[in-house]
Design a protein that fits this description.
By secondary structure, the protein is an alpha/beta fold. It has one domain: Thiamin diphosphate (ThDP)-binding fold, Pyr/PP domains (Rossmann fold, 3-Layer(aba) Sandwich). Helices cover about 30% and strands about 20% of the residues. The protein has a nine-stranded mixed β-sheet, sandwiched between helices. Helix 1 crosses helix 7, helix 4 packs across helix 5 and helix 6 packs antiparallel against helix 11. It is globular, with a radius of gyration of 22 Å. The relative contact order is 0.11.
Length: about 350
C-alpha cells in the first residue's frame, strides 16, 4: 500500500534544505506494493509500471524519499502500486499539488503520473505553469489518445475524425501535440517514448531523473479496450523502423531499416525527410538537446505524427535553468538572514485587525 505523504522527513538538514538520504540500491520487489493491480488485461500501463518499479531502485534513494502523485484516470492508480509515498489527488490538479510538495520538501524526489485527459484537458493549465516555472518534478504523461476510465470518449490528443461515444460523427477538434505544447511552455526537459519499448523507456526515465527542474515525458501507451492499435505503426516490426525516428544527442538524425532516411534543414528553415544516399550524411541535422532556443526541438516535434509520416522519440530538449523550488528556498534563506526567524502569531495580529462580538 502507498505510504501517506504526511510521513516524517527523512533527510539531514542543511540550511533550510533537507538533503535526500541515499541508500543501497534496492530491488523491484521492495518498490512493489501489496495492492492488486487493477487495469484491464493487456493495458500498456502494466509495461510502464514494471519499468518504473524496476527503475526506481537505481536512484539510490530511500523509498520514503520518493513520492508519486496522480490525478484521476487509469494512469492515476499508479500510487497504489508503488511502495513509496503516494497521493491519488484531484482530477488535473496533480502538478499543482506536486509543486507545493517539491517546494516545501526538497528531500523528496517527486513524480507526477497522469493521462492525456488529466494533463491536457482539465489539468492543462496546471501543467504548463509547472513547466514554465521549472519546478523540480518528473511528469509522466501516458498518452493513449482516449478517455479510458470513463469508457471511450475522445480526448485532447485524439486524431481528427475519431469516432467515439462522445463524437459519433467523428471529432472535429485539432489534437494537441504534447511535446510541442511542453516546448511552447518553455519546459527545460522534454522527451517521448513508447510503453512497449522497455529499453528506450528506461533510458528516457534515467535522463529525466538526472535533470534538475521540470522533466516532461510523453509515453505513448496502448488502450487495448477503447483504442487498441493506436500506435501499431510505431510498434509493428514491419513498419517501426521507417516510422520511428530515434533521436540521439550529438548524432545525425537518421532512421529507416538501414539508416537510409534522414532529416535535414531546408533553405527556408524547415525540416524535411531525405534519402541519405542522395544528400550525404553531412547534410543531415545533428540533434542537440542542449540548444538554448527550443525552435529546433519544436520543429522536430512537428515532423510527423503517429498516423502519417514519421514520429520522433527520445529526448528533444534538456537545458539548464534554475529550478523554481530552489529559487523560492533561496528567497526564504535570504529573508531569514536579513530579518531573522519570523513570528506567525505576530504577523496574523499585525496591521488591520478587528474584534467581533
Amino acid at each position: 500500500m502507498s505510504i501517506p505523504v504526511q510521513g516524517p522527513p527523512s533527510g539531514r538538514r542543511q540550511g533550510l534544505d533537507l538533503v535526500p538520504v541515499t541508500a543501497e540500491k534496492g530491488t523491484k520487489k521492495e518498490y512493489t506494493s501489496d495492492q492488486e493491480v487493477r487495469w484491464c488485461p493487456g493495458c500498456g500501463d502494466y509495461a510502464i509500471l514494471a519499468a518504473v518499479q524496476s527503475f526506481l531502485p537505481e536512484l539510490g534513494l530511500k523509498r520514503e524519499n520518493i513520492v508519486c502523485i496522480s490525478g484521476i484516470g487509469c494512469a492515476a492508480r499508479f500510487p497504489y502500486y508503488l511502495n513509496t509515498y503516494g497521493m491519488h489527488s484531484i482530477h488535473g490538479r496533480a502538478p499543482a499539488i506536486a509543486t507545493g510538495l517539491a517546494t516545501s520538501r526538497p528531500d523528496l524526489s517527486v513524480w507526477v503520473m497522469g493521462g492525456d485527459g488529466d494533463f491536457m484537458s482539465i489539468g492543462g493549465n496546471h501543467l504548463i505553469h509547472a513547466l514554465r516555472r521549472n519546478v523540480n518534478l518528473k511528469l509522466l504523461m501516458f498518452n493513449n489518445r482516449i478517455y479510458g476510465l470513463t469508457k471511450g470518449q475522445y480526448s485532447p490528443t485524439s486524431e481528427v475524425g475519431k469516432v467515439t461515444k462522445s463524437t459519433p460523427a467523428g471529432s472535429v477538434d485539432t489534437p494537441f501535440n504534447p511535446v510541442s505544447l511542453a516546448l511552447g511552455a518553455e519546459a527545460t526537459f522534454v522527451a517521448r517514448t513508447i510503453d512497449s519499448d522497455r529499453k528506450h523507456l528506461t533510458s528516457v526515465l534515467r535522463a529525466a531523473t538526472e535533470h534538475r527542474g521540470a522533466a516532461f515525458v510523453e509515453i505513448l501507451q496502448n488502450c487495448n479496450i477503447f483504442n487498441d492499435g493506436a500506435f501499431d505503426l510505431l510498434k509493428n516490426p514491419e513498419t517501426r523502423d521507417t516510422a520511428v525516428v530515434r533521436l540521439e544527442h550529438g548524432a545525425p538524425v537518421r532512421f529507416g531499416n538501414d539508416g537510409e532516411k534522414g532529416v535535414r534543414m531546408t533553405e527556408r528553415g524547415a525540416l524535411e525527410v531525405v534519402d541519405v544516399a542522395e544528400v550525404g550524411e553531412d547534410a543531415l541535422l545533428v540533434h542537440d538537446v542542449k540548444h538554448e532556443e527550443p525552435a529546433l526541438a519544436f520543429m522536430l516535434s512537428r515532423l510527423g505524427n503517429v498516423d502519417d509520416g514519421v514520429t520522433p522519440i527520445g529526448v528533444f530538449r534538456a537545458v539548464d535553468r534554475p529550478a523554481y523550488d530552489d529559487q523560492v528556498r533561496e528567497q526564504l534563506e535570504d529573508a531569514v538572514r536579513t530579518a531573522g526567524p519570523g513570528d506567525l502569531a505576530a504577523l496574523l495580529a499585525s496591521g488591520d485587525t478587528w474584534t467581533t462580538n
